[in-house]
Amino acid sequence: MTTNQKSLNVDARFALPDNDCEQQATPDVEIIEFDYSKRSQWLRAAVLGATDGLVSIGSLMMGVGAVKQDVKAMILTGCAGLVAGACSMAIGEFVSVQSQLDIERLRRTNEGDREKLPNPAQASAASAVAFAIGAAVPLLAASFIGEYKLRLGVVVGAVTVALVLFGWLGAVLGKAPIIKSSLTILIGGWFAMAITFGLTKLIGASGL
Question: Is pTM beyond 0.85 here?
Answer without folding.
Answer: no
